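Record type: monomer structure entry
Structure origin: computed from sequence
Chain ID: A
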Amino acid sequence: MEKPQKKLILVITPHKKGGPWQWGANLANELNKNSEFRAEHIFKIRDKLLSPFRPGVKLIHTTNPLAFSVFFRPIILTIHGKIFGLFWKFFYWIGCFRASVVTVPSEFLKKSLEFKKAIVISNAIDLLKFSPSSSGQKIENNFEQKSFFNILTVTKFWFPGKAKGLIELARIIFNLAKDFDRRINWRIVGFGPLLEDVKKSVSALDKPQNLNIQWFGFDLPQKYFSDSDIFVYFSYEDNMPIAVMEAMASGLPVVTNQVGAVGEIIDSGENGFIASDREDYQNILLKLMSDFSLRRQISEAARKKIKEKFSWETILPKWLVLFRSLLK
């Protein structure tokens, strides 16, 4: 007896390798492990232009508000961030009207867009790519003997709100380092057109002698999670920062300001910390750096939160239910 043919889903994203592109690649990869669906990640311009005319496609899942289908197939439009400019707001309004379903990754974004009918399905993390960090694995005696402390930040320098956030974070860490009795290595991973301006602003600050800053530009964050002690984040503009979720999946204690949907990721004081202001941020960070037991406790709880709420094992079934409901 022949096996039933898998239903083909096209997952369409921007061609540039950013957050939405990676989301589409990961979703297609997870769908292809399923016995019911087959997915293709469409991102090249030519393939996107041809996608409305592809035979055999059962459903189009896109981040592009201009996507359409000549065969009246169901269309899911997923919006990953705020929409800026009247031009794009107009096209997204059209896209939302034409789509069978609109999804967003957070309640925060749903409220920001004021789109009450949007379905919230969070971003997902592949736990196999993120092993627990040394922060939660080393025994206390060895850890306390370290002469330095590794702090990690992963961000993007494409948006003014993120760039300004990094400068504010520098002020916090510079001030904290003056009261800390060990050397601090602050490693910053990320790139973008605002990177050089941020470097200049940070270099103009009065850096304590026990603080070393390393800029790694464009690189894989996974390379730095495993031997970091704490992940610090600060942004004035964000939705659901993947870097925070990946750090938690790696078992890193996370400290961040209140921005976007971080409150949907972190239960402050239980599996991470959301600081209310600069002084609170500095106090939390100093306490974490001085208390190994607290770091270990937060580390274990952080990975558990991602596993239970944001792993593909939790998120993929939600997509499958949605797909099935549209393909009845």
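Annotation 1: The two ends are 23 Å apart (CA to CA).
Annotation 2: Residues 160-177 form the longest helix (18 residues).
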